[in-house]
Amino acid sequence: MFYWLYELLAGYDIPGIGMLPGITFRSAAAIILSLFITTIFGKKLIRILQRKQIGDEVRDLGLEGQMQKQGTPTMGGIIILMAIIIPTLLFARLDNIYILLMLITTAFLGMIGFVDDYIKVFKKNKEGLAGRFKILGQVSLGLIVAATLFISEDVKVREHVTDENGTFLSEQVVDPATGESTEQFVMENVKSTKTTIPFIKKNEFDYAWLVAFAGDAASWLKWLVYAVAIILIITAVSNAANLTDGIDGLATGTSAISGATLGILAYVSGNVIYADYLNIMYIPNIGELTVFIAAFIGATVGFLWYNSFPAQVFMGDTGSLALGGILAVFAVIIRKEILIPLLCGIFLIENLSVVIQVGWFKYTKKKFGEGRRVFLMSPIHHHFQKKGFPEPKIVTRFWIVGIILAVITIATLKMR
């Protein structure tokens, strides 16, 4: 909205108007507004939730201090959604296909989470929305994202032009100022199913390679494989974020760290100079996502004001499903989805701990007649609670691990 305001006022000599089109300025404005919404309006929303008695029904899992959280307002994810969507609408370019995709993702998964929380709170059904409906929603979103990336002509990456032998073509470019001639590779924007592989010198992987055997059918079959991958990624990360949201501030802080890292990756991928210097895939118009992720960071950090121990409000599935889905779709769009196991390592560990616990319990019950456990309780943050670690210490240490993983993720830009 403000970008279009600049286009209307660009002809007038208004002090400071030239800052409006800059991504850096709009990102800074988005994060400030997002923090303002979560900290100021968040308090008012908490009071509304308290008056409406929209409190969390805590299941007694035998954890120390757990029942003291009974009645804590939930559905606080509404605060996060507002703090992401409003600044994005105001400061991002709404004609950018990537921004539109992220807004759809935020609203879509936020609505699924809201329905789940509504059933739990108002219908007094602790199970919430049936799992098959959650999966159906996540699959539907995956199909929307995949179809958009396939159909939209605005979704392209810049690649080297090669001859029939696969050799990069080059051309002589004359600098009009100096008259000096330099040789540059010929580049073009193309639709592609390529993504980035970490720690590899030629660090690009094409989903088309998986169906190379299909001959002429590979041209459309690669998009089918790509769509399946996107669906799996969105479902896995969204559910993993939901599992991580078990103790005060854990999912919120972890999401903020991952979001900040993705913001850096989006910025350099959308800047032709940085992309060329780092020898990474350049994606035209992707830099605009920096504005969105700035709002995301502001929303999660601001929510921590009330969600840190002891939490005054829980985000509920309204927030956790949306946070995980946003990180997943964002990573897919900037072609960094293979980095998710590293970047979202905390989510991965939480998810794996549940899979291991359930799998081992079923296996041992079938083999020995009695189920055995690997962890005292899963997800793994509850294991550490059972061992006597206080919540703030668990959360802080998980954040530290998350920061380490984020640094390693950024380092993959050069570590090949």
Précis, in short:
This protein has 416 residues and is mainly α. The protein has 14 helices and 6 strands.
What does it look like?
With 416 residues, this protein is mainly alpha-helical. The chain is 59% helix and 6% strand. It has helices at residues 2-9, 23-51, 77-91, 97-122, 131-151, 218-244, 250-269, 272-278, 289-307, 316-333, 340-343, 345-368, 380-386, 391-411; strands spanning 157-160, 170-174, 181-185, 187-190, 194-196, 204-206. The strands form three sheets. Strands 1-4 form a two-stranded antiparallel sheet. The chain has a two-stranded antiparallel sheet with strand order 2-3. A two-stranded antiparallel sheet has the order 5-6. A hairpin with a 6-residue loop joins β2 (170-174) and β3 (181-185). The longest helix has 29 residues, at 23-51. The chain is globular. The mean pLDDT is 87.
Any chance you could write out the topology, listing elements then pairs?
Blueprint: H1 2-9, H2 23-51, H3 77-91, H4 97-122, H5 131-151, E1 157-160, E2 170-174, E3 181-185, E4 187-190, E5 194-196, E6 204-206, H6 218-244, H7 250-269, H8 272-278, H9 289-307, H10 316-333, H11 340-343, H12 345-368, H13 380-386, H14 391-411
